[in-house]
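USER:
Try writing one entry.

ASSISTANT:
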Amino acid sequence: MASFYVENFGCRATQADGVAIERQFEDRGLARAPTPGQSEIVVLNTCTVTAAADQDARAAIRRIRRENPSCQIVVTGCYAQRAPEEVAALPGVTCVVGNSHKHQLAEIAVASVAHDPIGSIAAHSGFVPLLSLTREAQSEIFVSDIFAHTELLAAPVFDARPGNGDRTRPNLKVQDGCDNRCSFCVIPYVRGQSRSLPLNQIIDEVSSLVSVGYREVVISGINLGRWGRDFVNPLRFENVIQEILRQTSLEKLRISSVEPMDWSDELIRMMACSPRIAKHAHVPMQSGSDRVLRAMHRKYRPWHYREKLEKIRAAMPTAAIGADVMVGFPGESEAEFEETRRLIEELPFTYLHVFTYSSRPGTRSAAMRDQAPVQVARERNRILRELGAQKKRAFMRAFVGKTVEAITLNVFDGNSTEALTDNYLKLRLSGRHDPNRWVKARVEQVETGALVGQVCP
């Protein structure tokens, strides 16, 4: 029996795609290998949101080729979609499968291992790929126009029992693609237009996860708040939340990143009022400067953003509130960076994801002048990371002596068990506790980035 291994890079959506790819191979009778070195087919499911992400993928290709020179290396994901010829030219790559053909990946890979004519796949797939061979390497390429792509690859991990590995909080991707055109972002060009998983399929998937014992499910997407807008009879994101709560017995629903424009008063009210929705709001910010936001083609202004976060905090005083922030965008002046720093300082964030701008081929910002010097961007990154760390420490200290709700994870360290609170804080519990259990715990102290406490009797 042939074996496979899938290695994922990047966001939650990519992780969910990776599970769907695993499912494709298993449906064809292949066995999952424990490591790339023991696999006949290694799939690299790549990211391309930054130049560093591309570098990580290339480094992984070199490592796998060195460790397992006889395996077939299949590269898929966003890097494969954006630069297929570049990827195919890398030594060791057998074939390149873009996001446009990810739903056929196992079929393509198995044919490659069996030395079947790759072109024969197109003959019976019902979807004609653009196949080519690079001049530098004999690597087949399966990539076509992503904007003609209507497939939505989605497969939650309901076939694995809770506590198997780290799968205690499965991630269900319910939306893919993006119709926004932020000037710095390559994602719409590698993931295509916004498209949504049908509501009945979401309910079926969540119900299946609940039926095998999962207690928390994370729903995610590339532009999650736009879920349902592409239907013939459009729905809103709030509708899917309402129906999950109404039609399933899921104990906890966690919502991943939602753009500021989509944090409606109704969504905030639903999250605040339901004990079944995790008190955790991730609201991408990118910049606190009006001019920079306009240059980024973001659809909100600093005062809009402030209003949303203040509403969230007023409705949920103990909620986790996080953001993505970018530094070093072309033309960002010292004064504009200070506007961002000051806004972050004033708002009730509990954590930050800080990124340094990375020019992406094909985006509007790549042609902009005044690219920030590397050292300037790094220093701005350091300043905001430290500010975010300060806010997180202050937030965590506020829970010492209090009781929190948390789900136990399948991670043990000596005589302690790792858990995650409803409001997204790492918690170390004394003693060994079964994974995938909601517990009440009393927080005793904060230590090395985590709360430390005891399960309440």
Q: What stands out?
A: Residues 374-397 form the longest helix (24 residues). Confidence is low (pLDDT under 50) at residues 118-137, 157-166. The longest strand covers residues 403-413.
